[in-house]
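Blinded run. Sample ID left blank on purpose so nobody reads anything into the name before looking at the predicted structure. Input follows.
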Amino acid sequence: MTQTADIAAPRLGLTQIPLARGFVTVAASTIVLVILCLIFAPSAVSYGGLAGSLPFAAVIAIVGLGQMLVVQQGGFDLSLAGGVSLSVVMVTHYPSGDNAQLLPAVMIAFSLAIAAGLANGFLVGVMRLNAIVATIGMNALLYGVVFAVSGGVPRTTTPLLAQIAGGKTLGIPHSVFFALAILALVTFVMKKTAAGRRFEVIGANPLAAHAAGLRVRLYQAMAYVCAQLHYCVAGIMIAGITREPTAFQGDALLLPSVAVVVLAGTSLLGGRGFPVTTVIAAFFLNLLSQFALSVGVPFSAQTIIQALALVFGIGVYSIQWRRQNTIKEKSKMEDTDNA
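Blinded prediction complete.
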């Protein structure tokens, strides 16, 4: 019994390494970046710089959490751009500057987000279509609605929405509070409820989950619905932060949403998600963009920076994964020798 416990203990420790390693990697990278900003680009971490950049970091965090839910099920949601843009258009064009019409516009935006999520979930989770193909088609459909509503012409946001989403309390942008509230909700549901644990189990091994009697297709479909709700909230935040948002606001968020999920350590093959690390990665990626702008890197190179961050995340966790396999193989050989 003692030998069995001694052998099992190291294995338990090894299974906990990826979570700690992912958090430490992102947190350490963020601290190093802050130090570099203090030395070479102080304006990026000044109060004025953070006050201007934190709202957009919060938006990236929100869409990143939504994309994380889909990636946990082994998929990708490329309809993010259309979902965000549609909510932006609905809460700006429908009210037409009238505060009284803002609530109906928000309700319509959420209704359309649920409908888009159900469509994606049905195509991917039930019909078993390829996630990339299905969500690209949905993205085109969403942009069709965007053009039908807006005609591609931007419109000024309502004063009430600008106050709610773009205002500040105690010097902190309201969008940051929204992002933290969503983070707390996602973390609680994913880590503290039975449904959340089933969700992660299904993402890690759908076949075993199905054999255990779990409703695999339902959970996979609901991942897309929850993701679209995240995109809708992000679009509403953008409409309040930006005085006159365009109909293409979601285009710039697709790559960052995937980058922060990968940087946080969520496997592209599905499985466990790391909400807190994803939010930290969103702050890191946004600060990295601000640092690059402050040192003279042109704005056109921002996509390249985000792509490099994505490649960095994939590379780091690929190396870690191989190291984990090597350690496990050595552990198995030692157990065999002891036996």
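Unblinding after everyone has recorded impressions. Residues 2-40 form the longest helix (39 residues).
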